Amino acid sequence: MTFENLQAKRGSGLYVIDRFEGKWAVVAGDGGEVFNLPKDLLPDTAREGDVVRILVQVDPEETMARRERIRSLLKFDK
Q: Which superkingdom heads the taxonomic lineage of this protein's source (predicted)?
């Protein structure tokens, strides 16, 4: 299961930092799901075994702003 699918189902949850692999933190949930999270999204104090709360939210204003930016870039003068 991907991180995106997991969060789409729940919105937030508690996870344990299992280990670090280079620039990634391997994070595990209580249901056995495991995924990689960019290490630089975690606090500098985060360590293996720490429990972290992960919250994913949609930002409607930023979504619209980026869509408008893309639309403006796609408009070509003929």
A: Bacteria
**Tens-digit pLDDT profile for residues 18-49:** 999 999 999 999 888 999 999 999 999 999 99
Residue 54 pairs in a beta bridge with: 13
pTM exceeds 0.90 = no
Domain 3-74: CATH class, spelled out? mainly beta
Q: Which residues, 6 or more positions from 51, have their beta carbon under 8 angstroms from its beta carbon?
A: 14, 15, 16, 17
Return d(Cα 27, Cα 53) in angstroms, integer.
11
Domain boundaries, the chain: 3-74
